[in-house]
Amino acid sequence: MIPVSRNSLGPTGRKLPPWLKRPLPSGEVFERTEAIIRKLGLETICSSGNCPNRGLCWSRGAATVMILGKTCTRNCSFCSVAKGNPSTVDPTEPARVAKMAVLLNIDYLVITSVTRDDLPDGGAAAFGLCAEAVRRARPDTTVELLTPDFARCRNQAVEILSGYLPFVFSHNIETVPQLYPMVRPGADYRRSLRLLAAAKGKFGGGITIKSSMMLGLGESDEQVEASLRDLRKAGCDGVTLGQYLKPSRNSVEVADYVHPDKFDYWGRKATELGFSIVMSEPFARSSYRAAKLIRG
Residue 252's domain is classified under what CATH number? Predict the structure, then answer.
């Protein structure tokens, strides 16, 4: 077992607690998953985001594909995805994503992307085309779209995506609004809530709406509860809460390691607030065990 952080020391020089351990990625299924992703020339948030769950997920033949390139137009301090000027949209990507779903026999596929503020539709059409290609190639696969906030084109993006239903729709607020200047300087908390509400209103009650938050960045209990209430008001059915872990040397520092008992508390609180789908544990991520979260 190894700590997920690149550093064996956590905040203020403390060692990582024992519950933040993950095995080294290995095994035949892991290697096959890695080989297929590489052969198809696909990006994953598993690798680009240095996700601590990559070993477990890939060992089960699961991966979260990241479309629209590997360069983000934002500069969030919690994320290790490359920042800068992105490449042009690759029209072959939907077919390659669908082929990955077929080769890996994926029953539940999460599709996410870098933020593409440079595109008129924010990349919404690319999400839709990927979802459509997967369903054509593998009709029984459930697709979850984990999108950016479509800052300049929310209504247009939601309208475009409505033509590719059904799917699970996700957009992560990531943290409490008080920490946005430090953690998500290019984003806006209320804008994210408006996207979730717009999606709920446009897609209808039969479509699951999800969001996710990281804990351990310095948020207070009162701030977390207020954000959970905001998500419910926006129409979120599901919420994921997990421990923030510094993914790269230049990422924002961890303020605190939240004990699993506290995650249990937040799980109960989220259920009390009316969320029908809840995952609250240190290694919870928006796409980690997403199929189990939705299907039970």
Answer: 3.20.20.70
- Is the predicted pLDDT of residue 12 greater than 70, yes or no? no
Residue 257, pLDDT above cutoff 80:
yes
Longest dimension (CA), the chain: 51
3-state secondary structure 171-237: CCCECCHHHHHHHCCCCCHHHHHHHHHHHHHHHCCCCCEEEEEEECCCCCHHHHHHHHHHHHHCCCC
**In angstroms, rounded to a whole number, what is the distance separating the alpha carbons of residues 180 and 190?**
11
- Answer whether 94's CB lies under 8 Å from 138's CB: no
The pTM (predicted TM-score) of the whole model is 0.91
Is residue 161 a contact partner of residue 204, using CB atoms and an 8 Å limit? no
Distance CA 268, CA 217 (A): 21
Alpha carbon distance 292, 170 (integer Å): 15
235-254 per-position pLDDT tens digit: 999 999 999 998 888 888 99
Per residue in 69-84, pLDDT (tens digit) is: 998 898 887 887 888 8
- Burial of 119-140, coded b for 16+ CB within 10 Å and e otherwise, reads bebbbbbbbbbbbbbbbebbee
For the chain, what is the domain count?
1
Cα 63 from Cα 288, distance rounded (Å): 9
Going from the C-alpha of 130 to that of each of 94, 105, 117, 198, 217, the distances in angstroms are 4, 16, 19, 21, 33
| Domain membership of residue 174 as a residue range | 2-295
